[in-house]
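Sanity check

After download, print the first record. It should look like this:
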Amino acid sequence: MHLILVPGFWLDSSSWDRITPALEAAGHRVTALTLPGLEAGADRSSIGLADHVDAIVAAIDAIDAADQPVVLVGHSGGGAAVHGAVDRRPDKVARAIYVDSGPLPHGAAINPGLPDEDGEIPLPPWDVFREDGARDLDDFTDAQLDDFRARAIPIPIGVARDLQVLTNEARFDVPITIITTTFTREEIDQYVAAGEAYFAELPQISNVTIVELPTSHWPQFTKPEQLAEVLRDAI
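Expected structure tokens:
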């Protein structure tokens, strides 16, 4: 398989550095993306969700899917762009894997409530991720939190606030795996019943696997070996 790893908000391709070696050792080819606007010194003012989808589609098109079937892996907000790419190239994607994320439906935004500063969205204070008993920071050490904040890159406003655009119902035929780290399978069932946006498409997708890996919202930092193992199994 050829895996395309898509980072979540505030992260670039280096966020997958502790995952890639295990996947390559298992015989897979790996491409870890840095999405538009997350490059050093990038102009983020005009970048939106469609640009992130376009970048993933370009990476898919660069691979000979007949020789190396493509698996997309999207973490957090990167999962929305992955789903947009699946919609564009359903015939070229063997599986989509969402890491503490889900297939954002048409007409929904990833996180329009994130506060912006000077035309971009910086990583919020840690207290934001602890509100209402959230488990986002479970298993993080202070040193890991410091490293995360040091590497964090502001994201373009448009990526968080633009509405997802989907047009191809063939996306429902692409198998998906959800690796859930901060919520349970039971909670996902509740979200589906409530029409929660990130899970509204699940009942229409023909092949859905859900795997629980309890840890932080960023398992590539807090449980990298376990995440790599789950990814290998999912593939």
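If your output differs, re-run the checksum step. Summary of this record's structure: The two ends are 8 Å apart (CA to CA).
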